[in-house]
């Protein structure tokens, strides 16, 4: 029975742009905003019909990703047919159903459109407002300045007891925090972002306790999530060696503006 459960705990359907995003498993939303998963059931065909009836079950779409996910499967109008019917272009998305301890989880995978870009070594952000982001074991500090280097403000996004959670829960929390950061950056008209370069992650923190409790996998996940969010929302991204950024921040901003070294 255990072998049978393992063999039947997963169902996958690959995306197809020409089939409204996915032929066999589609995500829809009703007028009340409730998400639904429609699964084609070929065993339910009757009287020689070629189309399979669909099993329709409600799903919960995470609040922080609701608009991003719904924009994928709803498609976008690219024209109008002669009789006035809209022409909808759909984006392909793959759907995977996984059963875990008598509960079902739906994973959706799709290609993200990158409208921002990563700057090369010699380039600098040219936006009027630039955000510097410092990733730490218990918080992500974000500071804003003009392209001339004048301080504009800062905010800390806390990650309480992050390593106490499972990998999946940790990824969810990181995703939620990144969405909060995105909202704050857009509210402040930020156009460029400066982050630590992954190549220099080992020198991230000289405190042994912090290094021991801040797994490299979590650190990479946080930085990669921030970079992906930035590129998908049109920010220019500059990665730098963090070795001396804390020293510069401490000398130039920390005392003058009464902020922590992480924010500086």
Shape: globular
Terminal residue distance:
58 Å
What's the number of helices?
6
| CATH architecture annotation of the largest domain | 2-Layer Sandwich
What features would you describe in this structure?
With 264 residues, the protein is α+β, with helices and mostly antiparallel strands. It folds into 2 domains: 2-110, no CATH class; 117-257, Nucleotidyltransferase, domain 5. It is built from 6 helices and 16 strands. A hairpin with a 5-residue loop joins strand 7 (76-80) and strand 8. Helix 3 (167-187) packs parallel to helix 5 (216-232).
Q: Could you outline the blueprint of secondary structure elements for this entry?
A:
Elements: H1 2-7, E1 10-13, E2 15-16, E3 21-22, E4 25-29, E5 35-40, E6 54-59, H2 66-74, E7 76-80, E8 86-89, E9 93-100, E10 103-110, E11 117-118, E12 129-135, E13 139-146, E14 151-158, H3 167-187, E15 192-196, H4 208-213, H5 216-232, E16 236-240, H6 245-257
Helix pairs in contact: 3-5
Task: Name its key features.
globular; Nucleotidyltransferase, domain 5; 3-stranded antiparallel β-sheet; alpha+beta; 264 residues; 6-stranded mixed β-sheet
């Amino acid at each position: 029975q255990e072998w049978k459960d393992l063999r039947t705990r997963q169902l996958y359907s690959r995306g197809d742009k020409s089939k409204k995003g996915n032929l066999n498993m589609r995500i829809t939303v009703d007028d009340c905003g409730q998400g639904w998963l429609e699964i084609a059931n070929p065993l339910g065909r009757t009287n020689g019909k070629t189309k399979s009836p669909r099993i329709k079950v409600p799903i919960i779409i995470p609040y922080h990703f609701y608009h991003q996910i719904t924009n994928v499967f709803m498609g976008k109008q690219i024209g109008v047919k002669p009789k006035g019917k809209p022409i909808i272009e759909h984006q392909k998305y793959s759907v995977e159903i996984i059963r875990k301890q008598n509960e079902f989880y739906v994973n959706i995978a799709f290609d993200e459109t990158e409208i921002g870009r990563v700057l090369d070594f010699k380039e600098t952000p040219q936006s009027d407002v630039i955000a510097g982001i410092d990733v730490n074991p218990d918080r992500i500090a974000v500071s804003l300045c003009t392209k001339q280097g004048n301080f504009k403000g800062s905010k800390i996004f806390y990650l309480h007891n992050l390593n106490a959670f499972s990998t999946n829960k940790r990824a969810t929390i990181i995703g939620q925090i990144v969405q909060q950061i995105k909202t704050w950056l857009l509210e402040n008209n930020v156009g460029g972002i400066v982050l630590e370069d992954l190549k220099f992650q080992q020198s991230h923190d000289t405190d042994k306790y912090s290094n021991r409790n801040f797994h490299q996998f979590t650190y990479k996940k946080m930085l990669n999530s921030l970079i992906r969010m930035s590129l998908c929302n049109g920010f220019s991204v500059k990665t730098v060696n963090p070795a001396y950024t804390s020293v510069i921040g401490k000398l130039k901003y920390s005392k003058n503006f009464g902020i922590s070294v992480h924010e500086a």
